Structure formats: structure tokens, C-alpha cells
Amino acid sequence: MTAQSIAMSDPTPEEQEQLRAIAGAIWTPELAVGWNMNAEVANVLSTATGEILKCSEAFALVPRPAGFVPGLSYLVKYWKNLRDYFLAVKSDRTYRACVVTAAANYRSPIEMASMGI
């Protein structure tokens, strides 16, 4: 296997459930349960997560290195923290804007990725 084929391989069933938990916190669990958690969905979820963290950083809530875009390994390693964080900030009017904006901006891309488009 090449590095590219490893990077593009679909997540394991356990990783898919972890990704689904993160997606459910950003959108809704009802939406996320119907999505095919493939490699492209993981890429879209990584981008959306990065946008939420970048937005939140502007509020000085989540410090992280500049230019950081979380990959699959980051998502599956910190899935509980990310899920809990997204669920917590959804109830805070200031930070909720970060999650809602990412959810709106990446809803179509994640749906298309799930369908293999």
C-alpha cells in the first residue's frame, strides 16, 4: 500500500462510529446515522472541525497551532473531546455561531461525500 492509498482508505467500523459521534454533534445524530462514513466524509468532517476550532480560537476558547487541519487520526483520537466540546458550545450563543456556520457550510459537501459524489 502506498501512503496515498492508506490516506484515502475508508475508516474502520470503530473509527466510523467515532466520526459519526462528531458529525452528530455538529449536525444531528439523526442526520449522521444515515451517512456513509467513508474517507471523503472524514475529509469533509476534518475540514468542518478545523473551521469550528479556528472560529472558536478567535474567541480564545480552544488554543491550537496555526494552520492546523485535523486529520482522521486526530478526529478518532480526540472524538469524545470534540463531540463534548461541540455539544457544549452549541448551547453558548457566542460559540454556537462557529458550529452552526460550519454545519451550514459543510452540509452539502458531507452529504455528497457520503453518496460518493
Word description of this protein:
With 117 residues, the protein is mainly α. Residues 1-6 have low confidence and may be disordered. The longest helix has 22 residues, at 93-114. It has helices spanning 3-7, 13-26, 29-32, 39-58, 72-77, 79-90, 93-114. It contains 7 helices and no strands.
Task: Please render the helix and strand layout as text.
Blueprint: H1 3-7, H2 13-26, H3 29-32, H4 39-58, H5 72-77, H6 79-90, H7 93-114
> What is the number of helical segments per DSSP (H or I, 4+ residues)?
7
Q: Which spans of ≥5 residues are poorly predicted at pLDDT below 50?
A: 1-6
Helix content percent band: over 70%
Q: Tell me what portion of residues adopts beta-strand conformation.
A: under 5%
Number of strands: 0
Radius of gyration using CA atoms only? 14 Å
Shape: globular
**Biggest sheet, in brief?**
none
Structural class: mainly alpha
How much is the average pLDDT?
83
End-to-end separation in angstroms reads 24 Å
Order of helices and strands: HHHHHHH
What distinguishing features does this structure have?
117 residues, globular, disordered N terminus
Short overview:
This protein is mostly helical. The protein has helices at 3-7, 13-26, 29-32, 39-58, 72-77, 79-90, 93-114. The longest helix is centred in the last third of the chain and has 22 residues, at 93-114.
